[in-house]
Design a protein that fits this description.
The complex is a heterodimer. By secondary structure, chain A is an alpha/beta fold. Chain A contains 16 helices and 16 strands. Helix content of chain A is 36%, strand content 21%. The termini of chain B are far apart. Classes of the chains: A alpha/beta, B mainly alpha.
Chain lengths: 401, 277
């Protein structure tokens, strides 16, 4: 499938010596060298990535990383120096002014950190502003605006002026104004950064709820990795104008591309993000029921040094756990199978179960957690108590086994 | 010695000779405007004019200013200066109107284009700092004596604040609002009329106020070239050393100034209040 937005070698240079700076960039010169030689600042350096339809894509970076400039290149509030931005396979950077205005009116809408509301207009007039620019008759835009106002929870505030509203409410107006245009792509520039932490979390939740209904393609800028992880389907991390890693929140957390990324990752609360699939040992030693009797099971325990083994059927269906002392008992009794000692009543995790959800599974004994495929109950892997405990207590990034 | 004066003289002469038909046309147009407004004010009985102006002052600036207006205008009538006062008022209104018609678009242009702004700034400085009397000379050369050169000199003298404050008002519109407006696909014209001008309005209205007040002072000065009105009375007071006459004319000017100032200021203030709400 064709990506909704395709960014190709997007480069943005601030300053007069654009051409020279571009050439130096192609020769692989560093930002500092280019600045010294031409006086031009590299804002965005060769960014290339695709954003799929309906994807919540977060660009995360500190101030000066070029994230906001990159976002503004997507609707050409800033003209990129080189590269392409393809929306539905149409190159935005090549559009004439009138066509660009059409794209901004219909296809890409934006939400701003400082809201950017019109202080001389009421909430309703602000929300209808984009429709007004499109030239819709007042009755029609009023109706559309009212619908969106209800959607974002602003009902009853239609006739208030922006200055009378709290920050959170003002940003709802900003969001409503963007949604009123029924755009395919929503650009959000640090949309919640100006809000109190409590309100911010609430707005994040509401945005996620909305996104579940709307399935817009969202490009969201933030300097806050926690926010990026909460919201993003995928995250691009930027530093000094370069995209240094793109991945799902879990990929970013578990396999940071370099020290810069891991220094961020350390501060993140991982419990809600890390899932069973990234913690589990995918090739655990198992006791195969009916094939391994007590004898076989004990042999495997001796080989691995484990006191507990998962028991599975021949086609890998998870049955439960067997414990060393009980297997010894049945062997002494002379049983030929371990059937009697399989503990079937044990909690299991699914691949997307988060560490937070697995907290109740922490036990005093060395009992591991089985990860099974929810569809067919097949054993996918095993999480040892050790790694579960480390993951829940230590917030430091620990190399994954 | 460099004779700048000589070159300017030559330039003005050249203008006078080559653009004579143009100046004649302008003169006829402005004369019609001034005569029309004067005609209106003198056609209406004085008490109707007083009542109307006082009503406007009361509605815009409160009952206090309304009372001051009614009393002040009555005093002018009682002093016997009604006709010259109406003449002066007409000259002010016409001059300020033309100054604003030219000045506000120039201000918008200067805000839009850096180059235009850079060129306009020294010109505006020049226009404002040049002693006002100097404008009377080319005005007379272009248009002869009378009201029209008075209006011409007044326009030049009173226009700079309209240009400057329009530029200031537009450049003070917050960047994030301009950016947001652009991001929704606004054309430059939509940006100007739907966002920049409404937000700049209080500042532009302050410029309107300044322009009107400067028109008043210049209109008085232009009595020297027979523009008529209250200036003529003041001028007579000076040339004939008649203290009483001079002060009477002066008091009428002050009353007119207070009324014009309060009424025009009120427009800017009302807008500000609505925005602050």
């Amino acid at each position: 499938m064709m990506p909704k937005l395709k960014i190709e070698n997007l480069t943005l240079i601030f300053g007069r010596e654009q051409q020279e700076a571009l050439q130096m960039l192609q020769q692989g010169k560093s930002k500092a060298e280019i600045l010294e030689h031409t006086g031009a600042t590299v804002g965005v350096k060769n960014a290339s990535f695709d954003i799929e339809k309906g994807e919540f894509f977060v660009i995360m970076g500190l101030s000066g990383s070029g994230k906001s400039s990159l976002l503004r290149c997507l609707n050409r509030l800033i003209e990129p120096s080189a590269g392409k931005v393809l929306l539905n396979n149409v190159d935005i950077t090549a559009l004439a002014e009138a066509d660009l205005q059409k794209v901004r009116r219909k296809e890409i809408a934006m939400v701003f950190q400082k809201f950017g509301l019109l202080p001389h207009r009421s909430v309703l007039e602000n929300v209808a502003f984009g429709l007004e620019l499109q030239g819709l008759p007042p009755a029609e835009r009023g109706e559309k605006a009212r619908n969106v106002i209800e959607l974002v929870g602003l009902k009853g505030y239609e006739n208030m002026m922006p200055a009378e509203l709290s920050g959170g409410m003002q940003q709802r107006v900003g969001l409503a104004r963007a949604l009123a245009n029924e755009p395919e792509v929503l650009l959000m520039d640090e949309a919640f950064s100006a809000l109190d932490p409590l309100i911010r979390t609430q707005m994040q939740d509401e945005l996620l709820d909305l996104q579940e209904k709307m399935h817009k393609t969202i490009v969201f800028i933030t300097h806050d990795l926690d926010e990026a992880i909460r919201l993003g389907d995928r995250i691009a991390i930027m530093k000094d104008g370069e995209v240094i890693q793109i991945g799902t929140p879990e990929e970013i957390l578990t396999t940071p591309a370099n020290e810069y990324v891991s220094s961020f990752v350390e501060k993140v609360d991982r419990k809600a993000i890390i899932t069973a699939s990234s913690l589990m040992d995918t090739k655990p030693t198992v006791a195969v029921f009916r094939k391994d009797g007590p004898e076989g099971s004990l042999r495997k325990m001796r080989a691995t040094g484990l006191k507990i083994l998962p028991a599975v059927t021949v086609d890998k269906h998870f049955l439960g756990f067997v414990y060393l002392h009980e297997v010894l008992e049945v062997k002494q009794r002379g049983d030929k199978t371990i059937e009697a000692v399989i503990h079937r009543d044990v909690p299991v995790a699914h691949p997307d179960t988060t560490v937070e959800q697995m907290l109740p599974f922490i036990a005093e004994t060395d009992k591991p957690v089985a990860v099974v495929n929810p569809a067919n109950n097949k054993l996918l892997g095993l999480i040892s108590q050790t790694s579960l405990i480390i993951e829940t207590t230590g917030s430091q990034s620990i190399p994954q086994a | 010695m460099i004779r700048i004066g000589k070159y300017i003289e030559q330039f003005i002469n050249w203008l006078t000779h080559n653009f004579n038909p143009f100046f004649k046309m302008v003169k006829a147009g402005v004369e019609t405007m001034v005569d029309g407004v004067v005609g209106l004010f003198t056609f209406l009985p004085f008490y109707v004019v007083i009542a109307l102006v006082a009503l406007l002052a009361w509605r815009r600036a409160g009952w206090g200013i309304g009372v001051v207006t009614a009393l002040g205008l009555s005093l002018i009538y009682a002093m016997g200066y009604w006709a010259p006062t109406m003449e002066t008022l007409s000259l002010i209104l016409v001059s300020a109107f033309i100054a604003l018609i030219i000045g506000i678009p120039l201000g918008i242009w200067a805000a839009r284009s850096k180059t235009a702004g850079r060129i306009m700034r020294p010109l505006l400085d020049f226009m404002q700092t040049m002693p006002a009397f100097v404008y009377l000379i080319p005005a007379v050369l272009f248009f002869g004596l009378g009201k029209v050169p008075g209006v011409f000199a007044t326009i030049i003298f009173a226009m700079p604040p309209a240009v400057r404050l329009t530029t200031l008002g537009i450049s003070q519109v917050p960047d994030d609002i301009v950016e947001a407006t652009r991001s929704f696909g606004a054309t430059p014209r939509q940006l100007l009329f739907k966002v920049e001008l409404p937000l700049a309005l209080p500042t532009i209205l302050a410029g309107v106020n300044q322009t009107i007040m400067m028109s008043l002072s210049m209109v008085v000065v232009s009595a020297m070239i027979a523009a008529g009105g209250l200036g003529e009375i003041v001028l007579k007071g000076i040339t004939q050393l008649k203290i009483g006459l001079g002060f009477e004319g002066g008091i009428a000017v002050v009353i007119l100034a207070i009324i014009l100032d309060r009424i025009t200021q009120s427009f800017g203030k009302k807008k500000l209040k609505k925005n602050a709400k």
